[in-house]
Design the sequence.
């Protein structure tokens, strides 16, 4: 599936393709803290725990994705906010000079069931079979399978199935007291693999807010805070 990037191309989109989809980042605030933009930028001295795709101390930019209240609600869940705590949130904007950079979208199959994915492959097989029968009746010759089309269909099936497994069965919330450096190690290895292929980030489903998605950028300078800063108290 990953040979010569053939499979992963199906998961690939550019940052330019998500321009217009709101991005944002939230943070827990102290009782009297008045935050500025700097407060929303990752700084290694404050990253004391492993994140989903990066070890402690790594300044990757994790952003919530979604329209309306989706991204702020997702950010609240990701920050593990509790009632009575102060929460700060601001939007982010991708820089113009990074819009050609590629990201891996692990959510491409989220809207599909496994049956949907399997049915698409089955429909391809039936189409090829009917094509072969039609030509055979017209010419009396047996027509070999179109290997190129078959390989393409199988690759898509594999990528969509793999992505759905990752997104819905492996990305699960961690319980209290677990060692994040161990639990997140497979995903951190996956991120390093994507980096080796030249990707700039990963889009993935939120483990704590099913309606939301997250985007991690391997270079925190690819996006910048914009607009006003919203401060609220969790109820």
Sequence:
């Amino acid at each position: 599936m990953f040979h010569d990037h053939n499979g992963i191309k199906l998961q690939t989109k550019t940052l330019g393709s998500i321009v217009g989809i709101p991005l944002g980042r939230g943070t827990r605030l102290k009782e009297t803290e008045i935050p500025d933009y700097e407060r929303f930028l990752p700084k290694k001295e404050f990253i004391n725990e492993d994140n989903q795709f990066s070890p402690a101390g790594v300044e990757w930019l994790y952003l919530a994705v979604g329209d309306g209240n989706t991204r702020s609600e997702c950010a609240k869940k990701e920050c593990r906010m509790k009632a009575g705590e102060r929460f700060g949130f601001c939007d982010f904007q991708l820089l113009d000079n990074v819009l050609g950079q590629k990201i891996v979208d692990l959510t491409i199959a989220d809207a599909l069931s496994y049956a949907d994915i399997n049915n698409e492959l089955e429909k391809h097989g039936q189409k090829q079979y009917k094509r072969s029968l039609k030509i055979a009746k017209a010419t009396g010759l047996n027509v070999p399978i179109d290997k190129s089309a078959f390989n393409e269909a199988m690759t898509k099936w594999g990528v969509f199935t793999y992505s759905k497994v990752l997104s819905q069965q492996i990305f699960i919330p961690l319980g209290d007291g677990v060692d994040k450096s161990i639990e997140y190690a497979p995903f951190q290895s996956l991120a390093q693999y994507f980096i080796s292929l030249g990707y700039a980030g990963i889009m993935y489903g939120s483990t704590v807010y099913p309606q939301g998605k997250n985007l991690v950028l391997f270079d925190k300078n690819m996006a910048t805070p914009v607009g006003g800063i919203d401060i609220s108290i969790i109820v």
